[in-house]
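User
Class, as today's exercise, I want you to study this protein, comparing sequence with structure tokens, and judge whether sequence predicts the tokens.
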Amino acid sequence: MEGITEVDGWGEELESVFARVAGRFGRADLRWRMRDYVRGLLAPVGRKNGWQLAEYVGHRDPAGLQHLLNGARWDADAVRDDLREYVGERLGPGGVLIIDDTGFIKKGTTSAGVSRQYTGTSGKIDNCQIGVFAAYSTGHGRALVDRELYLPKSWTKDRERCREAKIPDERTFATKGELARGLVLRCIAAGLPAAWVTADEAYGQDWSFRRLLEQLDVGYVVAVPKSQQIKSLAGIWRIDQLIEEAPEDAWQRLSCGDGAKGPRVYDWAAAKLPANIIFDPDPPTHHRWVMARRSLSDPSELAYYLAYAPTGVEVAELARVAGSRWAVEECFQAAKNQCGLDEYEVRRYVGWYRHITLAMLAHAFLAVLAARAQDTARGAAETTPPASSPSPWQRSGAYWTLSCPTPDPTRTDDSTH
């Protein structure tokens, strides 16, 4: 555990983590195996497979650690609950809950949920498992807090194959979006002190996902494709068409958080949408926004967002929330590189959840150590209130709003979402 020992109090912190989850393991031998497994995941082991972990922690063979993952009686979901509470307590309130998925490249066809499917891990269709994850990020740090294994229809339609992989009969097909909604509901219901949710366009374009967040009174800033439709009682428009009409004065230069090379600065355009008379109270407690981010080096490079925020929230805060999505990618990279998140050899459904949960626990411990060692405060550039502009982008006090634009009869929509 090189590097960990340089942080004062790391031993006491690790013991506090073990004490927090110890009650989830009914026998002393299982508690010791859990401790050994997590210590092995934190160790500088070349590849964190069964034999190398067993050798590092002094076991004669990997049988005991394999039993911990595959045969022993303990509830990985209960350990996940303890992990989520630990992260919320140590990283503090007011953070951002981030939803994303990652792939685990595998050989063969017997690992639960494995299939030829697209994964951003390799950037192509690959033989892999897909996990949908929730991460929690604050100014102090970031860590994974929940997970679900995606099961393609090729699996859920074949119940015999599912039984061989020990997938419960009650586990039926669920889209990644449905899994994401379940993660959000679980985290909010458990009291994770998140003020915001963000996600990439795969999840952001899902109306059901956004509507759930609104019903939970949780603000969001989610990416959407350029073909995303903006609907009102007056009609339907594509988000890229609305952004094209933004006057230059509507753009403001803002930092969306610090990166490896300092502040990540872009030009941002944001405007409030009219209230939805079906869903919104009068007066509204939140506003919906359309947003776009424009690269400074290549102005043709644009990203689009929809937001839902309490009244009075500034555009700079929305930009910060949008920029926080990178934290989940950092979590995946750190958990895989440092804690063996993707180096498991289990094939059964329960084994996947157990290994992933313990690897997340190891990563959360590292995130808390990092938070103690250095406070990662993030700044944002000052904003300049934009000047007034013609319709449909209109200045209202300190903000821009979108009135209902007049459709251009010469333009056609080639995509719907």
